[in-house]
Specification:
This protein is mostly helical. 45% of the residues lie in helices and 0% in strands.
Length: 91
């Protein structure tokens, strides 16, 4: 499989908007600013979890709320999905 990511901007974007677009593009695709580090961090987490098999941890990624946000660059909708899923599964 081959994926092609295309990021759009406009010639008249302000410097602030360019900065915002760059931050948002960091959230998706294989060419984000931290993609390589993300893979490394995943390995750290896997090794840590294996070393502490009888422990429990939760990473909240910016909170626990599911209310609507002023931006789409948030994990609130993902948290909302999993909260509803757990409720439907009886957990």
């Amino acid at each position: 499989m081959e994926l092609h990511w295309t990021y759009f901007g406009f010639a008249d974007d302000t410097p602030e908007m360019v900065n915002r677009r760059l931050k948002q593009s960091n959230l998706v695709g294989p060419a984000g600013y931290v993609s390589m580090e993300d893979g490394c961090v995943g390995g750290f987490v896997q090794r840590g979890a294996a070393a502490a098999g009888d422990e429990v941890s939760i990473v909240t990624m910016g909170g626990e709320g599911t209310e609507s946000q002023a931006t789409r660059a948030t994990e609130a909708s993902v948290r909302g999905f999993w909260k509803a899923y757990r409720r439907h599964m009886g957990e």
